[in-house]
Model the fold of this input.
Amino acid sequence: MCGIIGYIIKEGGEKNLAPILINGLRRLEYRGYDSAGLSVINAKGEVLKEKSVGKIDSLVEKLKDQEFIGTLGIAHTRWATHGGVTESNTHPHTDCSGRIILVHNGIIENYRDLREKFLKDHNFVSETDTEVLAHLIEYFYTQTNKKDLRGSLIKALQLVVGTYGIAVVSLDEPNKIICARKGSPLVLGVADDAFLIASDASPLLPHTKKVIYLEDGEILELTPKDFQIFNLKDEKIARTPEEIEWNEEQAQKGGFPHFMLKEIFEQPNTFKDALAGRLVPNDGVAHLGGLRLTDEELRQIKKIKIIACGSAFHAGLVGKYILEHVAWMPTDVEVASEFRYRDPVVEDNTLTICISQSGETADTLGALIEARRKGSKVMGIVNVVGSTIAREAGRGVYIHAGPELSVASTKAFTNQVAILMVLALQLGRLTHLPLATGKLIIKSILEIPAKMQEIIKQNEVIKNIAEKYKAYEDFYFIGRGINAPIALEGALKLKEISYVHAEGMPSGELKHGPIALIDDKCPVMAIVTKDSLYEKMVSNVEEIKARHGKLILIATEGDEDVKKLSDDIIYIPKTSEMLSPLLTVVPMQLFAYHMAVLRGKDVDRPRNLAKSVTVE
Ligand code: AGP
Done:
């Protein structure tokens, strides 16, 4: 996700702020980005600005013959969500006059509506949702005779639906930076000679360890004299700085020991980002921009083929159940490395969906090209904006999971499943799915983040379970129906970061061979949630119990019956069967994480693996 840094010199005075802002951006590089920019305001109220696509070094190259002498400055690294990777889309963004200058991290879901309703006569230079916010502030600012930037920002934010971490300045009030936070972190740093604002604490550490983490709904006003915090009613809030003892790496992980755990914990929020602006609850419909297919063309699709690798493949397997159940859409799922070489038959009216977090996986890219060569329409479900698969597909959906830095995919996986759910709803409501069912599906989807959070709260419980099993060298993961792919995903998570041999399979397959391996040295993690296959899963668990297999069960909260079959049990909230993979996967992610930590492995950078497999 994007990175923000802001700096204002205390007690006035001016200096070259470019090196300070650049060094701040460099400490945010780990977040992933595709362009960067900065603006500095001097005591005369003039603005100096520069932008560049590519790495920060490209921006530094542009700055090298310039001195950005000023009293305050804001800077930004952009992780593209709305709009391609272009200089015009790079932050900071401005209003029509160029006198309001803003950087933003997050997603303004209703930016199109706001532009349509309030900003018809404004001139826009970018495709971003952020620029709309700059103009919306201008809309209110001009009504205050350009004298109340904070009040104008508050009025604008009261209309915004979405998430934001914002820093905004105005040449008409050149001695202040106004910040706001909702869903995208912002941290205030109180140094001896300056106030700073940043997306996490790492850029602050060279200047101060005295910080205040803004809360959702808080507005921060920085001037050379002091800082003040307000709520969205413009009422002052008393907050005092805390002293953090983190080093840079700890600050980048937000205090988490590893990026993987941070990314598991981010899932309730990143899941919301996947859905942002794509569901219409009142009509029980979904709308995925970027498909570049009319409703009629979507109705013409008679088959979907999902192609992917690893965790993305497992998300595709979940997608098969969802697309066939919700949209009655015949769906095949294939491993990309097999599809591309087997001279596949691609039927007419097929839509091939290539799922890839990185958008750079060579096998998936090769399969996309092969499917298109065979006449299939293709689309991507990708996390990295502007990646090769996204561009090659020419149409598709970004999952908005933010940069996934741990090699083991977690938040990208759940967002891939989320997008497949939204696609199934969109297709279903174009054909047979009734309004009431569509509304019910949306209601269940919107309840998922809170239910994920309930499971994440059991992190210590799951850590204690992992402690009991850390010495085991073999594991089975089993599930049925839509949770059979989650058994595969749970096994992949465990093996790829803890190096324990783990095998996932549909439970019904046990009796066809694998049960021969069941004994007290081969624990089994089983998904036994209250769904249409519950009784069959209970039978499988009893078969394992009878052979002295150790059982870790993932069960529906309140189910006391199944507890007597377990050696350990992890309860998850009840949800619809179609959405249950979004919950059953979370205990498996946490279990794998703790097993790897307890076994002393390099959790974020496991041996032999790369985050993006760009070779065959
Ligand atoms: C998942 O935890 C693994 N890191 C790996 O299987 C990954 O899902 C696979 O390589 C596909 O990567 P992609 O989504 O970037 O295409």
